[in-house]
## 1
Amino acid sequence: MTRPGRPAYNGFMNTAHPTTTAFLDALVARDFGRLTDTIAPQATLRALVPPGHLDWEGRDQVAGRFSFWFGGTDDFEVLEHGAEDVGGRALLRWRFRLRQERLGDAWQVIEQVAFCDVAPDGLVERIDLLCSGFRAEPAGPTVEASADFAGSGAGA
């Protein structure tokens, strides 16, 4: 349903802050150096991931977490990604298909949604993230969750 005078909306529009768009572009390219450059030194990442709520603080910890999740992949495909502004916060989302040795031989699909805040200096200072976890692609009618999403500890 659309409101009178407004076009139908069927997906993400790129209306997010330029810094959060740069963050997403770097993540999709798996350019973790460029991703780090978009993150404030005092940044926080609060994530609801399998197995639960986890927090990371500081640029290196936050960037390192994304590198842990998506770096070192044997194969990597971007299935979807997008960014938009929601009441002054950036809403980012991405869905990837990948294989990593630590996750086993099967292809994994993962989707994450993040709300981000940008500091006055123009860098990402807060990321609140919800994650599907790495999900093995179904060989049949069921999908199994893979292990080791959080890694071996809370650090990157």
## 2
Amino acid sequence: MGKKIIFSILLLLSFGFSAKAQEYLDSIKSQSTQMVNAFSKGDYGKLLEFTHPSIIKIMGGKETATRLLDTALHQLKESGITVEEAKVGDIIQSLKSNDTIQCMLPQYLKMKMGDKFYSSKNYLLGISYNNGKRWYFIDTNGGTEESIRKMIPEISKEIVFLEAEKSFN
């Protein structure tokens, strides 16, 4: 009888942990998708909502960052470059520390340049400071691993930075 009670408690606890993990996985998928959709549409106000605060600070604050991104978008459009597709894949690394949840997930980008296409598979580092409710993202292709870790020192040493894959055809 005692073994059944212990087993039942352990089973209930495991379902609780599993449900919590699924909740933060759903949250990161939803928020990372919102972020890449904002990028595709040129909605840089929305994009910056998901950008890590350290990156926004380095860019000179939210207003300056928005102007910089708007200028970059305008230059892309003038060059005839369009975003054809932007999406995120499934989480490939994940860890929880006392203060954060961190994960790495692929970001796929396809841009049209005249009659040619540029495709890339970059990696986004996601960090949540409130148990997966709110996520911030860093494109790990935007700098060296050393520079990114210096900007955001709470990145776990266990997180493995992966090389981007690019093609032009």
## 3
Amino acid sequence: MSILDVWIVRVGNVIGWLYFAAVVISVFEVVLRYGFNRPTLLGTRDNFDAGGIGMLWGGSYCMAEDRHIRVTVIRDAHGQKNEADRRCYRRSAQSALLRRGLPGQGMLMTQKALFDPTGMFRLQRTGSAFNSPAPAVVKTVLFVVVILMTLQARAAAGSQDKGSKRPSNGTILPMTSREVDDV
């Protein structure tokens, strides 16, 4: 694991407690609403925010832990004969998406959430009775996670290039990040 991955996991362990907070808020909301006929103002909104931030950070956390789900239908159908070509195509698509598309659009989305049209700092708000700045916070977390995942993908691609195992017939075998760490 890289230093970035270690940091992501440590922060993710703290953010994971947001799910616990969401459960506690839900129980509190139900007891107040149905037990005392006193619905709360923040219950549902806070649960959406806590769950959303947890889910967003979860993508980067899974990349750091190398526990994300891989769909290997194409690789399994073609075997190992064209693995180097498929890896090149996969990296090109990943590069186009993670280095060019998502960060640029995320920056625009976050800029609109944090600044008004005149350029003054103003957090986007829900427009509800509480009018919390939750949309701005969640969109900023989304942008940060996209940047982190971009850095993680670049680090993984670099470590795969350095640690590629080549069998005698010249094809490249796929490696997990744990195998790269062992090299």
## 4
Amino acid sequence: MIALLGGLFLLAVLLLGADAFSRAKVGNIKRLLAWVAALGGVSLAALLLLSGRAGGAISALLFAAPLVISWWQQSKARPRAMPRRSATAMGRAEARAVLGVAEGASAEEINDAWKRLMVKVHPDHGGTDALAARVNEARRVLLG
């Protein structure tokens, strides 16, 4: 009977977790997987150290170090949220400032700046919907 209740509880937890996972943003899932990998690596190194296999623990840590450093540098390079803009429409000067282009920029320069920024601020790459919409609006103002 206790095993049945435990199984039902585990099933409920898994279903709730699956529901939360299905609604999560890609960036949050990536961060979760990075933490799981980091904790797994630290746990592996601790178990190797405790079992007397210090060489294996050191090699595991040296193997994981480049990944940890890469994740840390990427997290520092993530674009920060821009301050909220007013409810008024974006002007040409503001659009140029958002895209970082000069006043007489050609359509090609505007598109290149837009592509460069969208790689950084797109929600699938750690950005937000608001930032992507702001960059799209700047491009529309300058090209439209």
